[in-house]
């Protein structure tokens, strides 16, 4: 079952459960996927990879919005935004924790033979490519910088 089908199937389930936040989030996800599909070309299906890209983008936007709400002391909007982010994250693969990321990047640095911080960009580029969807780009950059310092 594709991610699009899982999200579509989750909508009536959320209706039956009377879970307003989940229902709204799933509807927004489906809307974004339908819009992306129509842009791509009529009648084509989204791959799971494309769906994941859309979900990651929406999660990032949601976190950014929540951060702004928190800075403005709008806890009501912050809670609502983070609830939607948690629902969307259910469809994303598990992210690497800090220890796993450190171990992976240490191995990558050794493979590349990188010794100075001047070569940091090359390591970050490779890591972003290899860890797409498994680690946040910002976390990768910070970790590489600390390992090479």
Supply the helix-strand structural class: mainly alpha
* Fraction in beta strands: under 5%
Percent of residues in helices: over 70%
Count of runs of 4 or more consecutive helical residues: 7
Gyration radius from CA atoms, angstroms: 19 Å
Topology pattern, helix = H, strand = E = HHHHHHH
The overall average pLDDT, rounded, is 88
**What would you call the quaternary organization?**
single chain
DSSP strand count: 0
Largest sheet: none
Low-confidence residue ranges: none
Q: Please give the alpha-carbon distance between the first and last residues.
A: 45 Å
- What is the overall shape? globular
SSE topology:
Elements: H1 3-17, H2 20-40, H3 48-71, H4 75-89, H5 98-112, H6 120-130, H7 137-148
Helix pairs in contact: 1-2, 2-3, 2-4, 3-4, 5-7, 6-7
What does this protein structure show overall?
This protein is mainly alpha-helical. It is built from seven helices and no strands. It has helices at 3-17, 20-40, 48-71, 75-89, 98-112, 120-130, 137-148. It is globular, with a radius of gyration of 19 Å.
Features:
149 residues; mainly alpha; globular
Short note summarizing the structure:
It contains seven helices and no strands. The chain is an all-alpha fold and 149 residues long.
């Amino acid at each position: 079952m594709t991610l699009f089908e899982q999200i579509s199937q989750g909508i009536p389930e959320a209706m039956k459960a009377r879970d307003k936040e989940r229902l709204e989030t799933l509807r927004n996800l489906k809307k974004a996927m339908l819009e992306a599909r129509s842009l791509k070309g009529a009648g084509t299906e989204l791959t799971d990879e494309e769906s994941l890209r859309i979900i990651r983008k929406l999660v990032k936007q949601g976190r950014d919005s929540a951060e702004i709400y928190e800075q403005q002391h709008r806890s009501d909007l912050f809670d609502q935004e983070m609830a939607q982010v948690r629902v969307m994250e259910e469809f994303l693969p598990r992210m690497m924790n800090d220890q796993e990321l450190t171990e992976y990047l240490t191995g990558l640095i050794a493979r590349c033979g990188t010794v100075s911080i001047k070569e940091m960009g090359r390591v970050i580029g490779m890591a972003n490519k290899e860890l797409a969807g498994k680690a946040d780009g910002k976390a990768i950059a910070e970790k590489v910088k600390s390992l090479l310092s």
